Amino acid sequence: MSTTTTAAQLGTETRLRRLTRIAGMLYLAIFIIYPLSTMLGREALVVPGDAAATADGIRAAEGLFRLGMVGEASIFLIEIALAAVLYVLFRPVSRAGSFAAALARVAEGVVMAAGNVFTSIATLVALGGASYLAAFSADQTDALALFFQEANDSIILVWGLFFALSLVLTGWLVSRSGFMPKWPGILLALAGLGYFVQSFGVLIAPELAGPLEIVVIVLAIPGELVFALWLLIKGVDTTAWIRRAEAAKGAHL
User: Fold this and answer.
1) Which residue, among 32, 50, 35, 217, has the nearest Cα to 149 in the 3D structure?
2) Residues in the chain where the model's pLDDT stays below 70
3) End-to-end CA separation in angstroms for the chain
4) What does the alpha-carbon distance between residue 144 and residue 125 come to, in Å, rounded to a whole number?
5) CA dihedral defined by 96, 111, 188, 221, rounded to 10 degrees?
6) Can you tell me the distance from the alpha carbon of 87 to that of 37, in angstroms, rounded to the nearest whole number?
7) What is the Cα–Cα distance from 253 to 245, expressed in whole angstroms?
8) Which residues, other chains included, contact 149 with Cβ-Cβ below 8 Å and sequence gap of 6+?
9) Which of 39, 43, 45, 115 is nearest to 73 (CA)?
10) SS3 of 127, please?
11) Other C-beta atoms within 10 Å of 9: how many?
């Protein structure tokens, strides 16, 4: 092996380690920001079935509600970046599979942004007290605010389907990669299955929302957390990745 080849390989390994850490940090950022955004905003202020209490809560803590909205918007941006990084990491395994996983994650982010952020903006407009809202009574604007927030619950189930697909595909890529162990991929695929069960289950039978949330906690969270921490701490086998990339002809960092 020539000095030039060795230097090129070392450079690739360095960039690869950096990329895997970035992927792990982005994933952990989602793990932290999304729950905080929902807990600070919707979960803290929305009272199911009580439009007046919901409207009063949002008016009294509009800054908190807006902070949650900004957090949800940032998730969309992080998801796009993560989709790109994971595409590059797993492209040597399957270009088509990696692209499909990235596309599913981008679709999830788009639906999340268009749905979650839109319903938050619409809620704030309904409660904003603009002069044209005088055509509506206070009860009606309060009801509109709760309507938008409850519509968001269904939108979450829709982007959850795209998210589930991205997890299943990424789990498949991990398990057959050769530069990561199979078991994190299996856990990630199980996480995707958990989100599929939750989204389809609640859409079909809303009364099962509580039990199905437990399914997600049991199946999804461990798999995602393991994957994120593995990328951040262990990374990938750089030698195996380079070998796989060379075999795939052209999957370069």
Assistant:
1) 50
2) 1-9, 250-253
3) 20
4) 10
5) 170
6) 27
7) 9
8) 42, 46, 54, 119, 123
9) 115
10) coil
11) 14
Q: Is 250 helix (H, G, I), strand (E, B) or coil?
A: coil
Neighbour count for residue 191 (Cβ, 10 Å):
26
Nearest to 230 by CA among 80, 32, 25: 25
Token representation of residue 39: 């807990």
Number of other CB atoms surrounding residue 233 within 10 Å: 10
* 62-109 per-position pLDDT tens digit: 999 999 889 988 998 999 999 999 999 999 999 999 999 999 999 999
- Decide if 235 contacts 20 (C-beta within 8 A): yes
Residues 56/139, Cβ–Cβ less than 8 Å:
no
Nearest CA to 185 out of 99, 77, 76, 89 is that of 89
Do the Cβ atoms of 223 and 175 come closer than 8 Å? Answer: no
Task: Say which residue the tokens 């007290």 belong to.
Answer: 129
Q: Which amino acid is at 239?
A: T
Cα separation of 49 and 21, whole Å? 43
Residues across the chain: 253
